[in-house]
Amino acid sequence: ADEHLDLDDGRWEDIHVITGALKLFFRELPEPLVPFGHFDKFIAAIKMQEPVRRGRCIRDLVYSLPPANHDTMMLLFRHLCRVIEYKEENRMSVQSIAIVFGPTLLRPASEEGNMAMHMVFQNQVVEHILNQYSYIF
């Protein structure tokens, strides 16, 4: 919206409010950051056994995203990598970030099938992109 936000306002001091708003923004998008049409491709890529092939495939998939999705992903993951740099203070490791953001950024068009298995792979995709950020972007 065109609303001006004053981040110096006291209501924004609690980091959980800001992080919750960020996650809510991505969860409420009409389509996730990784579009529905890319979901199965990312899941198939993360299941690849050969690491070099898996890495290339995921990088290529990220580059195949629409420009707005790709650019947003690049900025978001750059920020998340910075958060991970302070994992000793904030307890947000790569795995923790992946658990929080995996199902939000990457989800199937319908919730049919094994949601628990989907979640494992969703988290692995986010983990891979975080771990390979400089290679991918």
TrEMBL record:
The record's InterPro entries line, in alphabetical order, gives: Rho-GAP, Rho_GTPase_activation_prot, RhoGAP_dom
Residue ranges of the Rho-GAP domain? 1-137
A Gene Ontology term for the protein's cellular component: cytoplasm
Give the UniProt record's GO annotations in the biological process aspect. Answer: signal transduction
Output the superkingdom of the source species.
Eukaryota
Q: Which Gene3D superfamilies match?
A: Rho GTPase activation protein
MF (Gene Ontology): GTPase activator activity
Record keywords, A-Z: GTPase activation
Q: Name one Pfam family in it.
A: RhoGAP
* Listed name of the protein: RHG27 protein
